[in-house]
Amino acid sequence: MANPCDTCPTKICCNPKGPIxxxxxxxxxxxxxRPLCPDKKKKSHVLCGCGQSLNKPFCDGKHNKAxxxxxxxxxxxx
Length: 78
Ligand code: FES
Known about the structure:
- The chain is mainly beta.
- The chain has a domain at about 10-25 and about 40-78: Ribosomal Protein L9, domain 1, CATH 3.40.5.
- The protein is built from one helix and three strands, in the order E-E-E-H.
- Strand 1 (about 10-15) and strand 2 form a beta hairpin.
């Protein structure tokens, strides 16, 4: 049986203690609606889900030092 989300144009992959990966067309804006993505042609974005990034809302890799344990908390298998 096909997953009804297979045809969705945008995919968001959430890692509980790490990055949130967005694939597909999306417009990321700040709280005032101002665009945050300098490259409009970019088809994937990685947002910080751990709170440690110095470049929020984007991931800067600090989650690796924050002790991300993606194997134990991976919700994609749920
Ligand atoms: S998820 Fe926070 S720095 Fe990568």
